[in-house]
Amino acid sequence: MCNNKSMTLEKCNEVEDLQCQKLLTTYDGESIRTINVSDIIKIGENNIKFDFECILDSGSQLLGMGNQNSFIDVLYKKFQFKSQHKIFSILLKNENGKLTIGQDYPNYDEITIPFDKHSKYYQIDLATVTDDENNVVFQPNQFENYQIIVDTGSTLINMDSETLQSFQKSFAKCQQDIRGCPQELNYDGYQCYYYDRIRYGYISNFYETFPEFSFNFQNGYQYKLNAKDYLLNPQQDLYCLPFFDHTRNYEPKFQKTILLGQPFMNNKEFYFDLTDSKIFIKNPEAKQNTLQIRNLSDIVQNYYIYVEIGLLIGIYLFYRKYSVQIRGIFRSARTNQGFNPYA
């Protein structure tokens, strides 16, 4: 929604500008009104003016980040980064997150996940998903029937009901464990499990009762997703599955959408290479030689900036046109997602 409390927010003139208001279509076809505005974002001691669109209607749909990178383009122009590729990275952890802009990836020739540069979203070419019992959890019969998107805008992993049921079958793995299955609980409509410390001891033993998923891509790249990363922890000793049925409003003209949200990205650093349309993934280093920029004059050839996401809640208002790619990180879960496990 538009941040009407901002003293620097400027809205377009609806009488003079026929393009002042527009309609935004969300993933599954809902239309939401937007309005062209401008405001000031402060990074360090630098005030930068952005033009963007903010929403006028409260919607129940997933808005997401989208493959529209004007926000990154503006920062590259303002800060004159000298990275080999135009790139930014996102690191999400349960307690906070980090956005880094202008930092080169160590090896641009590495095999990784390509995304469709012509799509409005970071749409990827997932071939199959298998669990650690070699069961095929997901395999599209026709690729054109699906949009598979990496998206920080969702605090869950959203999918159609058929795919969701297939994922849920993998959680019968615990029935073969000598410790048995964890106690299953319902929390706010989500399938959750109780971590019995006496029964399991170390949390790693509890995690072992859950499946590990392998996301296999068309180019042969494989991404492992384990319980330590995908389980949500809304309360002490309560761990919930991140999968959410998001099938409403689908019509024949709309593809089924799988949104690989924050649980898919948790505890890994995702580099979005805008030059070659690729997503690189690596384990975060314990320490990084990162500089916090205070003034534009501080920029030199090898510097880049990062933003501690938890400190910048206020900039969520920069929607669709500029900072859609990081918007979801700055906001809590939308109403149709129930609870925010990362709050």
TrEMBL record:
Domain of life of the native organism: Eukaryota
GO molecular function, one term: aspartic-type endopeptidase activity
Main localization category: membrane
GO biological process: proteolysis
UniProt-annotated location(s): Endomembrane system
Membrane topology value: Single-pass type I membrane protein
PANTHER family: ASPARTYL PROTEASES, PEPTIDASE A1 DOMAIN-CONTAINING PROTEIN
Protein name, per record: Peptidase A1 domain-containing protein
Species for this entry: Paramecium primaurelia
Lineage: Eukaryota, Sar, Alveolata, Ciliophora, Intramacronucleata
